[in-house]
Amino acid sequence: MATNIPTKQVWHALTIDETIAALDTNPEMGLESWQISDRQNIYGRNELKGKTGRARLSIFIDQFTNIMLLMLMGVAVVSAFLDLREGNFPKDAIAIAAIVILNGILGYVQESRAEEALAALKLMAAPNVRVLREGKIAELPSAELVIGDIVFVDAGMQIAADGRLLQAVSLKIREGALTGESQGVEKFADRLFNADESLGDRRNMVFQGTEVLQGRGIMIVVATGMETQLGKIANLLQDVEVEETPLQKRMGELSQVLVIASLVLVVLVIGVGLWRHGDLVKLLNTSLSMAVAAVPEGLPAVITVTLALGTQRMVKRHALIRKLPAVETLGSVTVICSDKTGTLTQNKMVAESAFTANYVAQVGGTGYEPIGEFAISRLAGDMLASDLSIYQCPELQILLTAGVICNDSYLQKDNANHQGANGLIPSPTGLDRSQWQIIGDPTEGALLTLAGKANFRHDQLMSYFARVAEIPFSSERKLMSAIAAIKGMDAEDTPESIRTIAALLPQTAYILFCKGSPELVLERCDRIHNEKQSNPISIAQINSINTQNNLLASKGMRVLGFAYLPLENLPTETELPNIENNLVWLGLVGIRDALRGEAARAVQISQHAGIHTIMITGDHQLTAQAIARDLNIFYPDSNRVLTGREIEHMDDEELTAIARQTTVYARVSPEHKLRIVQALQRSGEVVAMTGDGVNDAPALKQANIGIAMGITGTDVSKEASDMILLDDNYATIVAATEEGRTVYANIRRFIKYILGSNVGEVIAIASTPFLGFGAVPLTPLQILWMNLVTDGVPALALAVEPAEDDVMERPPFNPQENIFARGLGWYILRIGVIFGLQTIALMEIAYNSGNPAWHEHWQTITFTTLCIAQMGHALACRSDSKLLIELNPISNPYLLVSVIFTTILQLALLYVPSLRQFFGTSALNASELGLCFGFSLLLVLWVELEKIGFRWWSKRRLSASAK
Q1: Residues near 416 by Cβ (< 8 Å), separated by ≥ 6?
Q2: Backbone phi, then psi, for 924, in 5-degree steps?
Q3: Secondary structure of 590-626 in the HEC alphabet?
Q4: Which residues are registered as beta bridge partners of 375?
Q5: Given a cut of 80, is residue 207 above it in pLDDT?
């Protein structure tokens, strides 16, 4: 009965008969209708199910629980009450309410972007499948599949559920979406595997969402819906809790500090004022102005625009930011967990080495472009030599020819002007390498590219060495052979290169070229090609070949052996299976997914910047280890390699203990990737995680920065990510990290500027009840103007300050550090006090100078001086150490423009009647303006003198330590 089906079986460890029995299915007839109905009732439809997210209204309401906005709402209510009580229009309250609403909308827009990762996962389900039910083949939607269904598997289809293979004929499936590896995986129905075998090595299983490349088969469904491997990823994706970014945490801390400080000041001012028998209404007005002054209303908008500008700069460096806070978080990254294939490597198989009896060749070039240099040395024979041409090496010429003839793939230029699908025409200078592509197997394509680098054209070789028979590759034989008929070379138009190759081969009518596993090819050889002839192969030569094979394999290469056999007559069909004997050994070719040219340099920059690189891959351990050695991120004495099978047997504490020392993780599953990220985060690391497959989505979402591949990435991985690499390049992560550090440095720069000014305002306003001034110097509306315009516009200009030269020579920012760390809080307090005392001195002079005009306009004088002084402060904040006169004024032209523009706006408030009436200001005469500008210079002079003092103190301390 269906209710007794053991769905938690280790299916890849069971035989076909055991699987059929466990699932209670008749493989000849399929399930019966009552079984289908029962199983649908028990296990549900074959669909991925999502959890209910937060409602949009709830997200919007949550924006107004921010402590700063709550305080501003309270200020707006009290201000409206006081204005209405006196019969005035509550313009201050309306302005404050507008700011609160705008900030709420801004936060809502950033937070309400729904994650579409699960929706993208659902799209991976196959639309229709062919199923055997009640003895009939039917086509039905994949959602109707149930456990035990017999499903037909054909080339080009997408697997609709997890299944155990019952039949497999030349079946190859691309499982990159689950394992991260782009190579097709050959499948077998009759093999059994260990219970703890990694997902990528379960060769008798097929999985939902993967793609059938070739062959056919029959499977029995063993898991549907959320129980499939794809469903487990969906569960992991939904279970990941998104943490606040370092910037969000710091802004939360800043809000609390500002609100608590302003409330303490409000209570203090009202309490002391009442104790001194002050007027409650005046004290409330003072408190309202203080509260508005303490809160930097424009800061959220400035930060949002700063992050948005950072995203624009990152796009120019091939990084697309999906979530704004990720821009700043990049500056705190301490670990980059990178996939191997396509990120650190080219995701293109490249032939890098070739060995023959007497020659060794190292081959340059990138990708599939048939351009590259040969570095050839003669290591045996009568004369040693180096820097040889390919045309001086007969053995290599025949080896390259064998790679072209014994080949079922095509290399072509991917544009409208390529000269035939089979043509291999060398690329003109400057051609984009992405225009060259392989049609067929990437490993065979690497052999075509190798030949193309020697200008051996595929179409020419196939014209004069026409294939007339072949023995196809199979996983059992691990060999492929092609028989070519050698065309006569007497025609005048025969290319000289073709004549040369033909002259190097035995003068027979046919020739068989064989390629495959080096060990298997070698054991079928009794001779070896030596220069222009063949000789019996010796034990020493066999040992040398095996040594070379092991050397290439240890470098993570896929190694192919090549041989040939002269034939006088074309073998018959019955003779073909036994013809691959008594071969003549040609040589070895080492092929691998080569490193990106810029990857090693980018890793080195990361190391100097204090960022640790970890490789996480679904590939085999030796291959991953070899690539890691080339990148200088793996040292056997101090680092270790961990496999998915080893992770499976570790608890979280054990994994956390060794996570930082492990630089290579191989053969890992989606659960392993997620656990690795969590282990690093428990160790205090800020983790950037790259990925392109469905399997990467949970780890991408868990990481502090999830980075998806723009070219090879699935929609699922992109939707789960914070950032997308438009060029799939590790070096782009490093460039984005540099940009993130610059953004964070600029955020600190304008926070220093804004809060230093705000503290000065608060001190000046708080002093008025105790110094005998007739009223509050600034209204809430005027303070909002300062915080939003005269603070906000220059702050935006500071946000585009260029990166400092040593930005990637410093360690990452500590994600736990307070926003006031590294002297920022002391600067804000110190400059705020100086600014406040300066403003109090100005108010005292203007109010009590005896000049009637100054006395009448003392509030406007104070307002204008504060605004103009902030312009000088903004200029001084460009650098912590360099004087203003030492900085290049045009390196940040936006700041100069913003200072001039804001000063003009401030003057407009004095001299445009409508603005003057709305903001409650007065027109100032020349002497009053002179007083404003004179006092405004004092703050910038103080900041510059501080820089000189700190510079002197630093030099003195250095000289003292040198003694």
Answers
A1: none
A2: -100, 145
A3: EEEEEECCCHHHHHHHHHHCCCEEEEECCCCHHHHHH
A4: 362
A5: yes
* Interval 457-500: pLDDT, tens: 888 899 899 999 999 887 678 899 999 999 887 777 788 888 88
Residue with the two structure tokens 């003779």 = 575
pLDDT of residue 50: 64
- Which residues have a Cβ under 8 Å from the Cβ of 635 and sit 6 or more positions away? none
Other beta carbons within 10 Å of 949: 10
Closest CA to 413 of 423, 405, 398: 423
How far apart, in whole angstroms, are the C-alpha atoms of residue 204 and residue 188?
5
Is 441 in the active site?
no
Tokens 């009053």 -> residue: 928
CA–CA distance, 221 with 219 (Å, rounded to integer): 6
Sheet containing strand 662-666, edge to edge, reads 319-321, 723-725, 705-709, 687-691, 335-338, 612-616, 662-666, 640-643
Mean pLDDT of the chain: 84
Q: What span, in angstroms and rounded, lies between the C-alpha atoms of 278 and 797?
A: 42
Instruction: Supply φ then ψ for residue 162, to 5 degrees.
Output: -75, 135
CA distance 265 to 259: 10
- What is the C-alpha to C-alpha distance for residues 182 and 11, in angstroms, rounded to an integer? 24
Question: 911 pLDDT exceeds 90?
Answer: yes
- Give the active site residue among 339, 441, 630, 880: 339
Q: In Å, how far are 106, 109, 855 from 102, measured between CA atoms?
A: 6, 11, 37
Cα–Cα distance between 132 and 859 in angstroms, integer?
Answer: 88
Greatest mean pLDDT among 299-313, 507-521, 753-767, 842-856 lies in 507-521
Residue 51 one-letter amino acid: K
Burial class of 316 by CB neighbour count within 10 A (0 to 12, 13 to 18, 19+): exposed
How big is the CA angle at 551 (ends 658 and 527), to the nearest 5 degrees?
155
Contacts of 886 (CB under 8 A, 6+ apart): 879
DSSP 294-355: HS-TTHHHHHHHHHHHHHHHHHHTTEEESSTHHHHHGGG--EEEE-IIIIIEEEEEEEEEEE
Q: Is 139 buried (19+), middle (13-18) or exposed (0-12) by CB count in 10 A?
A: exposed
Q: Give the predicted TM-score (pTM) of the model.
A: 0.71
Give the mean pLDDT of 135-154.
Answer: 92
Q: Is 582 left (phi over 0), alpha (psi -120 to 50) or beta?
A: left
Helical (H) or strand (E) element with 99? helix 91-111
According to DSSP, the residues that pair with 219 across neighbouring strands are: 151, 165
CA-based nearest residue to 117, from 206, 245, 243, 235: 235
Residue 377's SS3 state is: strand
- Name the phi and psi angles at 358, rounded to 5: -120, -10
211-230 pLDDT tens trace: 888 889 999 999 998 889 88
Q: Measure CA of the first residue to CA of the last residue in the chain; give whole Å.
A: 89
The pLDDT > 70 percentage for the chain reads: 91
Cβ–Cβ < 8 Å for 174, 211: yes
d(CA 860, CA 920): 8
Bridge partners of 439, per DSSP, are: 410
Kind and range of the H or E run holding 562: strand 558-567
DSSP annotation string for 701-754: HHSSEEEEETTT--HHHHHH-SEEETT--HHHHHHHHHHHHHHHHHHHHHHHHH
The residue type at 425: I
Whole-number pLDDT of residue 419: 33
Do residues 337 and 690 touch, judged by C-beta distance below 8 A?
yes
Reported as a pLDDT band with limits 50, 70 and 90, residue 433 is very low
